Amino acid sequence: MNRYIYFIVILLISILNCYSQNNIIWNNDGTAYIPLKMYRTIYHQDVLKEDFDKLKIKGNDTLVLVDNLIKKGNKIGVKRRVISERRTYMTLKSFKQHYKRPLTKVDSLSFKFNNNDTLVLVKDYKPRGVSVPYEKVDSTLLEIYKDVVYRKYHSKKSDKRKEYMVLWTEPIKLYFSESVDKEYEQVIRNLSMKISNEIDSLNISFVSNLEESNYVIYQIDENHSHKYSKNMSANKYINFHSYWNKGKIYDTKLEINTTTFKNAEVNKKYLMKSFIRSLGHFYTTSKVPCESVFSNCNGQKITFGETDLKLLKYHYSYGICKRTPLETFEENHEKAKQTFLQTGRPLYFIHVD
Predict the structure, then answer these.
(1) Read out DSSP for 29-53?
(2) In terms of domains, do 176 and 44 share one?
(3) What would you report as the CA-atom Rg of the chain, rounded to the nearest whole angstrom?
(4) Which domain holds residue 262?
(5) 205 and 71: one domain?
(6) How far is the C-alpha of 108 from the C-alpha of 106, rounded, in Å?
């Protein structure tokens, strides 16, 4: 067999949030979503106004719904390209992990080989994904959100660091160290219950074993000195450190240090503020009142108010592509708004995790 045959290897465990521009999304009824660039190549025309309801947004890509892709492809000689994009191979090991049926002689006829790997053709493969309509949000709240998540209005021009949207995608399993005072623990329990009830995609539960947790809260005082994170070695009050990968938070340690600041009522306010901010990679802003948990004020009157809840809800809504930089975030909003203004119908965003 020709070792230089071109092939596509797709491992199920490596599917990302937003697909590449060359991806075609096939529907069960035979229709498909294709990138706008491919649509123009095949049909030699641009999308008409009456076709705007057939559009979807996927990351930076605009997709168009078509119902006769292969037939059209034959006419313009792109059938080979279309078929190659539909043929999906996975390694033999991955196939056995995800499919419980034995391999047949028919399967073996389609084997390909890459170095030491045997590749199996998967004819019924469909990419995972959920389409969610664009969620319109108040313009004032949206600008606050951009500052809280991306530092849009208070980052320095000399700062070249690009900020990304960061959030929890797995349920939070919270563990309280025995060092934590009950009044501090109760603050977190009450707040967690409120958040879980208000935000469907953010689930917080409590576990009694450290090994089962992905979020640990502990206290440092005259009787307790054990720190659960080396990144908290310099902390002198209430602070947290989160770990994430590709915009997904997977572990957090929150420390309550009362060795210097012993006013429990004030401590509870700042504990609440730190806990809320640990639910993403949030910055403070001057665009909210001083009592907001997202405010850059240092006042002692801190509450988790209506605007704070709206910001957190929006962060965990899926009416926009997630874990993107500011530029992509704003481009998606503009595309969605223009489509809605012209057609009265929302664009849909595709999420696979």
Answers:
(1) TS-EEEEHHHHHHHHSSPPPGGGGG
(2) no
(3) 25
(4) 136-315
(5) no
(6) 5
- Tell me what percent of the chain is helix, strand and coil, each rounded to the nearest 5: 35, 20, 45
**Residues 141, 126 share a domain:** no
Structure tokens at 348: 């849909």
pLDDT confidence of residue 48: 73
Residue 80 placed within a domain? yes
Are 297 and 304 spatial neighbours (Cβ–Cβ below 8 Å)?
Answer: no
State whether 289 and 142 are in the same domain.
Answer: yes
Contact 288, 144 (CB under 8 A): yes
CB of 164 closer than 8 Å to CB of 325: yes
Mean pLDDT in runs of 10 for the chain (353 residues)?
34 32 65 79 69 76 74 36 49 74 77 78 58 81 94 72 89 97 97 92 94 98 94 93 94 97 95 97 94 90 95 88 87 84 75 57
Instruction: Check if the beta carbon of residue 172 is closer than 8 Å to that of residue 214.
Output: yes
CA 271 to each of CA 188, 189, 254: distance values in angstroms, whole numbers, following the listed order: 8, 12, 9
Say whether both 60 and 161 belong to one domain.
Answer: no
Contacts of residue 108, Cβ cutoff 8 Å, sequence gap at least 6: none
Q: Do 125 and 17 share a domain, yes or no? A: yes
Give the Cβ contact number of residue 291 at 10 Å.
16
Model pTM score: 0.63
Pairing mode, if any, of strands 112-114 and 117-122? antiparallel
Establish if 239 belongs to a structural domain. Answer: yes
Write a three-state SS string for 304-322.
CCHHHHHHHHHHCCCCCCC
Question: Two tokens at 219?
Answer: 């206290």
**CB–CB of 254/278 below 8 Å?**
yes
CATH number of the domain within which 264 lies: 3.40.390.10
Please answer whether residues 248 and 169 qualify as being in contact, where contact means their C-beta atoms are separated by less than 8 angstroms.
yes
The number of folded domains in the chain is 2
Nearest in space to 202 (alpha carbons), one of 87, 343, 62, 313: 313
Both tokens of residue 306? 């209506």
Total residue length of the chain: 353
Q: What are the C-alpha distances in Å from 313 to residues 85, 156, 248, 309?
A: 37, 28, 17, 6
256 and 148, same structural domain?
Answer: yes
